[in-house]
Amino acid sequence: MLADTVGDPVAELEVGTTPIDSRELQAATVAQLDALYRETWVDHATKSLPRKANWAVVGADPLSALAGLTVAGGHAQAYPGLDALADAGGDVPDYLVFTVPAGAEVATTVRETLRLLDTLLATQALATVTAVFLTTSAVPAFDRAGTDLAAAAVWGEIRSAQSENPGRLILTDIDGDEASWLALPRAVISGESQMALREGQARVPRLAPCKPMVDMKQVAKDEGTTLITGGTTAMGARLARHLVAERGVRRLLFTGAEAPVLTAELIALGATVTTVACDPSDRTALRELIGRLPAEHPLTMAVHVPQMLSSDETAPLTPDSLAEAVRATVSAAEILDEEIGEATLVLCSSFTGTVGGSGSAPSAAWAAALDALARRRRASGAPAVSLAWGPWALGDAPSRSGVVGVGVLGVREAVALFDTACHANEPVLIAAKLDLAELTSQARTGKELPPAFRSLVKTTGKRTAGGGAVSATSLRQRLVTMTEADRDQTLFDLISTQISAVLGLESADAVQRNQIFREIGFDSLSILNLRNRLNSTTGLRLDTALMFRQSTPDDLVQHLSQALLEN
Asked: 398 falls in which pLDDT band (50, 70, 90)?
């Protein structure tokens, strides 16, 4: 009751409360982090019909690409393999077309794709040719339910390769409709390296900020059992601590090696912890493990944390090692999907499956397959989410991602995002701390961003094809007229500028000629980033092994000088 100065009532207020679930409140808090994104597919208008091009359809042709391209007005010829194309001689085609088989085994498909890709990139005679990889139902551009896991894994694999070989590879998911074949030649010259075509309509992938609504049907019952594969890994342990301390989960089941310290810590927090040396990709063992759970504590959530890959960052990636990494991760996820019934399936994925990244082929391939699996499970009516993580710190020490424009999530941020994703109404969420100002700055300087980022940045200039070749020619002409000392200084200035951009240094002046790359702060990912920048600027094709051998900026100056003046 409110009264005036003489005591007469002037208003009466009634205060009420509206109950709100704590997870809905947390979702609102997470929205303020601006670190959750989802992949969207937007309509893309293709350009007018290009000049007639020569196409080579290589390998199996289950989509009848030869016939489709012929109808589109191109000159197309079929070859059983790249060796047959090389032996044929004659003019080099403008485009190579490779078809990824649908419904195949995931690990086998990515292994054969990498073998093909290695051969293609090593064939000097095809260095100017654009390769188009055709898939079917690999991406959710038009149908969120119809996703092929093997083809999706190839998308992740090729997205990584696109980061390392800008402009050479194109991904196209196509339905085989005649209108789509007519649209394909226009689509491949549109400046988009990833697209989907259905009945002639083109769509391209973009990231969009996501503020998900909490789907209360996805909230796991805390009295049940939560299974964490890889629960004793660094990420699994962090998530387990959070589930017990903050979410009130009281029964945890780990697969993996015993971790006495972690177990004791969780027990002290009030949890019952069981660790079993069970391979989640062993269907029989996993089924028996779930079957032994007491009826009063059924499985309500399964969190799949992929095991860390080899710590040897400089080890060369082989088709067999890629296949093994993908098989170990994806097979376990597929079996979990089939064996856990109506429990919520949470897949810890990687944002490399969506945006690619130099040196990320294994994680990008299995991550894209996990994302596809979550979409398929959700479409079938079962609860699932794939959380595609960007870098996040597992320790307390300051950390950085090594990727320009991508920051590192703190632990508190990461677990908050995990909670929201688990109960959101989206099958796939990307959790990443993106520096949009830095990405915009990179785009304005001409850096080629992953297609997914293009909706997040604003630029005024237009990208032009072949810009790298023009600048490389100009650079070579300038070097020829210089003294040796001036030539070395010019190349060092170029290299130090690129190093500064890759590492986010305040100034290129901080780079010293004889500093060891590893001591400056380079890792395998940032070295690949530097290599790509130098390839674009110089017109050379520096390979990964060479970049690892050049231990200082001065070593790299000498190599560039020799390579440029010999061409």
From this structure: very low
What whole-number distance in Å separates Cα of residue 301 and Cα of residue 221? 9
The vertex-137 CA angle with 51 and 434, nearest 5°, equals 85
pLDDT in tens, 26-80: 444 444 468 999 999 999 887 655 567 899 999 999 999 999 999 888 899 999 9
Two tokens, residue 358: 């130099």
Pairwise CA distance, residues 68 & 31, whole Å: 46
Winning range, highest mean pLDDT, from 263-277, 478-492, 512-526: 263-277
Q: Which residues contact 531 (CB under 8 A, 6 or more apart)?
A: 164, 358, 542, 543, 544, 547
Q: Which residues pair with 76 in a beta bridge?
A: 55
What's the token pair of residue 49? 């019909």
Kindly give, in sequence order, each residue whose CB lies less than 8 Å from that of residue 342, ignoring residues fewer than 6 positions away: 382, 383
- Report the run of H or E that residue 547 belongs to, with start and end: helix 544-549
Comparing CA positions, the residue from 306, 451, 313 lying closest to residue 369 is 306
3-class DSSP state of 175:
coil
Per-residue pLDDT tens for 195-221? Answer: 999 999 999 999 999 887 665 554 444
Residue 194: predicted pLDDT: 96
The separation between CA 186 and the C-alpha centre of its own chain, rounded to angstroms, equals 26
Within 8 A by CB and 6+ apart from 381, the residues are: none
Q: Using a cut of 0.90, tell me whether the model's pTM lies above it.
A: no
SS3 content of the chain, % helix, strand, coil (to 5): 45, 15, 40
- What's the confidence (pLDDT) of residue 537? 77
Helices assigned H by DSSP within 62-104: 65-71, 82-88
Q: Which two tokens stand for residue 164?
A: 């390392």
Tokens, residue 274? 């069981």
Residue carrying the six token digits 């002037």: 10
Strands (E), 352-501: 384-389, 428-431
Residues 3/390, Cβ–Cβ less than 8 Å: no
Three-class DSSP category at 38: strand
pLDDT beyond 80 at 544: no
Please, are residues 269 and 244 in contact by the beta-carbon 8 Å criterion? yes
Taking Cα atoms as reference points, which of 527, 475, 555, 452 lies closest to residue 38? 452
Question: Whole-angstrom distance between the N-terminal and C-terminal Cα of the chain?
Answer: 89
| Range among 314-323, 406-415, 472-481, 557-566 with highest mean pLDDT value | 406-415
Helix residue ranges, H only, 271-426: 283-291, 319-339, 352-355, 361-379, 411-422
CA separation for the pair 101, 150 (Å, rounded): 8
- Tokens (6 digits) for 535: 């390839």
* CB of 428 closer than 8 Å to CB of 386: yes
Residue % of the chain over a pLDDT of 70: 83
CA angle at 289 for the pair 285 and 293, rounded to the nearest 5°: 165
What 3-state DSSP class applies to 291?
helix
What pLDDT band is residue 468 in, cutting at 50, 70 and 90?
very low
Cα 446 to Cα 536: distance, rounded to the nearest angstrom: 10
Q: Residue for token digits 């959710």?
A: 140
Adjacent-strand bridge partners of 54: 75
Give the pLDDT of residue 12: 66
> Nearest Cα to 43, choosing from 201, 247, 186, 249?
201
